[in-house]
Write a structure and sequence with these properties.
By secondary structure, the protein is of the alpha+beta class. The protein has a single domain, classed as Endonuclease Chain A (Endonuclease, Chain A), CATH 3.30.870.10. The chain contains six helices and eight strands; from the N terminus they run αβαβαβαβββαβαβ. Helix 3 links the parallel strand 2 and strand 3. Helix 2 packs parallel to helix 3.
């Protein structure tokens, strides 16, 4: 393989045949998700039940995470966000609306499920190859107080399956308000 180092070849083998899996517990999600977003080159997919920001110390890290998404949108990356939302607010985190509006204003494609269906999946998928999936919402409680557990996985095949299912669901979802 001309031009590739031995390490490059091993990484190609690993990412195509053997997924890399890492357990991400509690606030370790913050660094892992921010590193993933920073590394994104073309596409970011985010699905979450709750996303929030605010002006207090507790939500500072969330402001940073959302700013990273905005920066990637400014750089021309595609960002798709699937959120929980119901027009009657039944069972919905009201914090979703201002964040969704702000991300949409920067160019994100933001959607919610039809017919009052709850979006409870938590997925951050980067560039069709690496993702975090588990219990972490993008909320202060989830990132700083709750016991949360997710998996970081690098696998082109697994990412492809997740992305295809996400895009099917996303395609059937309602465009943001």
């Amino acid at each position: 393989m001309r031009g590739l180092t031995q390490r490059d070849v091993l990484m190609l083998i690993d990412s195509n045949l053997y997924p890399y899996i890492e357990l991400v517990v509690d606030n370790a999600y913050i660094c892992k998700s921010m590193d993933l977003i920073k590394s994104a080159k073309s596409e970011i997919i985010l699905s979450t039940f709750k996303i929030q920001t605010g002006r207090n110390k507790r939500t500072e890290v969330l402001r940073d995470m959302i700013q990273l998404l905005n920066d990637k949108l400014k750089d021309g990356l595609k960002v798709m966000l699937l959120l929980n939302w119901m027009k009657n607010f039944k069972g919905v985190a009201r914090t979703n609306k201002p964040v969704a509006n702000a991300l949409r204003a920067f160019g994100a494609d933001v959607r919610y499920l039809k017919d009052g269906r709850c979006c409870h999946s938590k997925l951050l998928l980067i560039d069709k190859s690496k993702f975090i999936i588990g219990s972490h919402n993008w909320s202060a409680a989830s990132l700083q107080e709750n016991y949360e557990m997710s998996l970081f996985i690098t696998s082109i095949k697994m990412a492809e399956v997740l992305r295809d299912k996400f895009l099917q669901t996303f395609g059937d979802a309602e465009k943001w308000l």
